[in-house]
Amino acid sequence: MSGNFFGYHGLELEKEREISKLAKRVVSISLTLENLSKCDSQCSNIFTFAESCTGGLLASWAASIPGVSSVFPGSAVTYSDRSKIEQLSVSPETIERHGAVSAQCAAEMAWGVLKLFNTMLAVSVTGIAGPGGGSEEKPVGTVWFALAYSDGRMKLKRGIYRRGPRRIVQLCAVRSAFDLLLAGLDEV
Q1: Residue 157, strand partner residues
Q2: Cβ atoms within 10 A of the Cβ of 37, count?
Q3: pTM of the model
Q4: Among 35, 58, 65, 97, which lies 20 to 30 A Cα-Cα from 138?
Q5: DSSP-assigned states of every residue in 4-31
Q6: At what angle do helices 166-187 and 2-37 cross, to 10 degrees?
Q7: Which of 89, 106, 86, 114 is nearest to 159 (CA)?
Q8: pLDDT of 20-48, one tens digit each?
């Protein structure tokens, strides 16, 4: 019994650490956005998100930044393959050939949400948060990210987060997505 007790508290501690790291990213983004909001009216619609495995966590954290609506018009949570196809124009062939958890799908999600919200940057996240759904090729914790720029550039990143509770994988993915957004904001 005590093994379960300490195991539970160890996971809660890890979750608290991830939340702390995430909060620091949000502060960095908040400061960056504060500087951007001081520029002229052309600095609207800076960024958006297309989320799958994070289920809206990115948008929720972004929405915690006061005044963010001037640079963040909204996001898309596209958990199912169908929603990726219908809302973000992800090709059914991409999902069939490469899967929803792939660089190709992440790229198409980013392009789709960039066009949907007409922003300068778009970050997409698609992955396997677990506890089930993984395979040998794509284990639980596999997450693909894409950062699309309105000038046509694209950055892709893959993260493989160690097996753990679903929420830990999601929080790690959110932190990585914010890191990618920060890199993009530095280039705007």
Answers
A1: 145
A2: 14
A3: 0.86
A4: 58
A5: HHHHHHHHHHHHHHHHHHHHHHHHHHHH
A6: 20
A7: 106
A8: 777 777 777 777 766 665 555 566 889 99
